[in-house]
């Protein structure tokens, strides 16, 4: 029975450590997103620092929102991810609005076609 209590104590210590690590991760996330305007679903997709690049943007989420209505979601998401990684910005909405991200709008393929969806 003594071994069971020891295992139970170890289990609670592990849970406490995991909760502590989660709290630290959430605090870091809140600190990293201070520069991003969060006023709605679409406004969180593009930078709101008036020309200064944002170094941390959730490209996976931003591109999922940008490509959610695309007929070829995998192609759209892959291209958007490349553009987001380079520009640290994704325009709001599912189409257009590229004036919100000039770098995103300016990227071209080798055939001089727009690279970013």
Secondary structure blueprint with pairings:
Layout: H1 2-32, H2 59-66, H3 73-87, H4 102-106
Family: Belongs to the GASA family.
Pfam family, one: GASA
Keywords: Signal
Explain how this protein is built:
By secondary structure, the chain is mostly helical. It is 50% helix and 0% strand. Helix 2 (59-66) packs across helix 3 (73-87). The longest helix has 31 residues, at 2-32. The model is unreliable at 31-50 (pLDDT under 50). This is Gibberellin-regulated protein 1.
Defining key terms:
117 residues, mainly alpha
Write the H/E string, N to C. HHHH
Structural class computed from helices and strand pairing: mainly alpha
Helix amount, in percent?
40-55%
Distance between the termini: 63 Å
Report the radius of gyration as a whole number of Å. 21 Å
Shape: elongated
Average per-residue pLDDT, rounded, comes to 77
- Sheet-strand content, in percent, reads under 5%
Stretches where pLDDT is under 50 for at least 5 consecutive residues are 31-50
Number of helices: 4
Major sheet: none
Number of strands: 0
How do you describe this structure in short?
With 117 residues, the chain is mainly alpha-helical. The protein contains 4 helices and no strands. The longest helix has 31 residues, at 2-32.
